[in-house]
Amino acid sequence: MKKVIVLGANGQLGKTIKDYSPSEVIKFHFFSRNDLDIVNKNSLKAIFKDSGFKYCINCAAYTDVEGAETNTEDAFLINAEGAKNIAEVCNTYHVKLIHISTDYVFDGKKNKPYTVTDQTNPINQYGKSKLQGELFIQEQLKPHYIIRTSWLYSLHGKNFLKTIINKIEDDASLNITTEQEGTPTSCIDLADFIIHLIDKDSIPYGIYNFSANGNTTWYGFAKEVAKNYNSKKTDSIKPSGVFKTLAKRPKYSVFDLSKTERIYKEINTWQKSVENIVKAYKG
Ligand SMILES: NC(=O)c1ccc[n+]([C@@H]2O[C@H](COP(=O)([O-])OP(=O)(O)OC[C@H]3O[C@@H](n4cnc5c(N)ncnc54)[C@H](OP(=O)(O)O)[C@@H]3O)[C@@H](O)[C@H]2O)c1
């Protein structure tokens, strides 16, 4: 039985992993922010010492992209220093780390999918803090997987898909930007990939991209949610131009998935995964 610690367990990815059917080969130990703050290295040490954890999944992060522009110190404390603390503790206690990063490490100036070796150049504070976290992990710890993912949604917490469903329920009409191109990713698909890494236990360490297949805009994503949730409401969603925000967003952040699919399997299209989750949402 492999013992696996999950940090940031009350976020949408953490909760999705919790939903994962109990496995006969993995025993998960879930820690929310209240149970274990990744900024506090002594607390981490105390939990990791003599624990016998084989893997650590770090779902803990400062994820408020807008907030990071003004609370930059907090974003770096959690996304960079927190990641460093985890890497150091994993190194001391021989735990393999699976860390989640983001498409926002890129500037979005490319017009074809980003590979894992493409030059990073974040254009907002959240992206900068997440990139610093990646760099600290690479410096501190050899047995690591850094999974860059994008546009996460799930049945839990606050996310774009749930916001659109709520707006449809309220009969609101919506103007959604067509300015960014990327790929919505279901936490269920990502959780399955994470479990695959642990199950196999022999996949080469390093950076992996993980999203669904294909790409769209936030407008296209919203339309697809409406189509699956209540097709009579698709017309209430209209395309719009730039959505003014404090944080700059990459215009294009589609991933090249070839490295990931070589060690995993063909990943769902984003439309298929949206269909699956809306079905699950409706129950
Ligand atoms: N959401 C996206 O669209 C997206 C896209 C690309 C990459 N990612 C990455 O994917 C990962 C999972 O994201 P998510 O959407 O599941 O995020 P989420 O729902 O915001 O969950 C993050 C969790 O981390 C916890 N946390 C914050 N500071 C902490 C600390 N100091 N110690 C321990 N826990 C702490 C939060 O607790 P509180 O709620 O109590 O603060 C929250 O439960 C993150 O690394 C994120 O950067 C997300």
Automatic annotation (TrEMBL):
GO terms for biological process: dTDP-rhamnose biosynthetic process. It catalyses: dTDP-beta-L-rhamnose + NADP(+) = dTDP-4-dehydro-beta-L-rhamnose + NADPH + H(+). SUPFAM superfamilies: NAD(P)-binding Rossmann-fold domains (SSF51735). GO terms for cellular component: cytosol. The keyword Cell division does not apply. The keyword Hydrolase does not apply. It comes from the Bacteria. Keywords: NADP, Oxidoreductase. Pfam families: RmlD_sub_bind. GO terms for molecular function: dTDP-4-dehydrorhamnose reductase activity. Residues 3-281 form the RmlD-like substrate binding domain. Signal peptide: none annotated. Its EC number is 1.1.1.133. It is an enzyme of class 1 (oxidoreductase). Pathway: Carbohydrate biosynthesis; dTDP-L-rhamnose biosynthesis. Gene3D superfamilies: NAD(P)-binding Rossmann-like Domain, UDP-galactose 4-epimerase, domain 1. InterPro entries: dTDP_dehydrorham_reduct (IPR005913), NAD(P)-bd_dom_sf (IPR036291), RmlD-like-bd (IPR029903). Catalyzes the reduction of dTDP-6-deoxy-L-lyxo-4-hexulose to yield dTDP-L-rhamnose. Belongs to the dTDP-4-dehydrorhamnose reductase family. NCBIfam families: rmlD. This is dTDP-4-dehydrorhamnose reductase. The lineage of its organism: Bacteria, Pseudomonadati, Bacteroidota, Flavobacteriia, Flavobacteriales.
